[in-house]
Amino acid sequence: MPPLKQTRKFRGGRSAPTQRPAFSHHASSTLPPQPRFSNAPLLQQDISGEIMSGVGLVNGVRVTPDDPSRVVTVQAQSGKTGKEMSISYTNCKVVGNGSFGVVFAAKMLPVKHDDGQEEPESEIAIKKVLQDKRFKNRELQIMRLVSHPNVVDLKAFFYSNGDKKDEVYLNLVLEFVPETVYRASRHYAKLKQAMPMLQIKLYMYQLLRSLAYIHSVGICHRDIKPQNLLLNPATGILKLCDFGSAKILIAGEPNVSYICSRYYRAPELIFGATNYTTNIDIWSTGCVMAELMLGQPLFPGESGIDQLVEIIKVLGTPTREQIKTMNPNYMEHKFPQIKPHPFTKVFRPRTPQDAIALISNLLEYTPTARLTAPEALVHPFFDELRVEGSRLPNGKEMPALFDFTKEELSTRPDLIRQLVPPHAEAALQERGIDIEDFEPIPLEQLRISLDVSGAYSFGDRILC
Predict the structure, then answer these.
(1) What is the pLDDT of residues 67-80, one digit of tens each?
(2) Which UniProt keywords apply (predicted)?
(3) What is the CATH number of domain 51-175?
(4) Which of 115, 163, 223, 437 is catalytic?
(5) Residue 311's closest CA among 351, 273, 363?
């Protein structure tokens, strides 16, 4: 095979080979069918639909573009307890759509709860998805169970009728977060500037913390990408969203391989593996980090097979043993022998070595060779965040990064000393967490389980 001569320029002057390696017909044609998931962000669009007396219906959700003061009241259920509640909202407008449905932004008026407490007025997002009556909505089940500072909060949910007969939509009422990491990255790319390394550290740390949490309870997100990372620019807080592809993985049970948006798909998924683990989220995380550093995707495959080509052009051809760990059915296939392209030549000349080291440890062919989320959190790349008095680039205080729960710390008690900087110990002590005498919760109690009735259970909580 002739040597690779063409190159693809990365921002910052570095380059990587771009000529497509010549896969044998046998190898390329027998790889499993690849999904056609879009990597595009949610589309901004104007509100459409019939508007009557200041109130319109867009796919079954009332919008109030003509009269901001008009209030819509619906009967809903609490996101966590399932108790019936009445919520009122106004200023409802479409902010995005996709294959899943539509996302609306609105202002929710104060809510009075049964215990007498009142939830103040807040900005909300309403994610509306078509409900298949034959199945329980997995996203709703998972969102009702998870609770973490870096996971978007489900406030309530309700159902609405669509335009067609028997058409029912599920509406997830979520906390509203104004921006995404995708748009933040595009902002710097358009200015032809690199995203400040401190911001990359801040965003990646919070993403990894959200993954450490959901992985500890057995959930795999399966669609990690910049568009699914919500961001509050003023506070620096990141929240993982869109659990539409998420699943509780059970050892020994097969899973579909045609998930995850293309640029962020782990190689074992491209090879058609069905016994994958939460390590696929770690691969996607490495792709996100590289994208923030480059200002463009690291592996921009034009198709499923081309995605593997893009990976090989950087990491080199996987060895027979590496292929075995991804899908042993492809061990005998012949792939072009391509040498790896060093990450030091992919990224800008002055890229910190600890950043390159972390990405190298996330983007491993062998799934079990990738760092776990807790292991990545204690990587030296994030040491700057652990310095007492660190501030955001805008000069404001850092968000709470070390307010770990007992559940979080129980996943890797051997890493507690590295996870919790000395200046954060007192705050944990006030919440009853003594890192000097820490007794972890048994892992089997942390994980969400699925009983024979199809109900999810999490600790003492059961959702039917």
Answers:
(1) 667 899 999 999 98
(2) ATP-binding, Kinase, Nucleotide-binding, Serine/threonine-protein kinase, Transferase
(3) 3.30.200.20
(4) 223
(5) 363
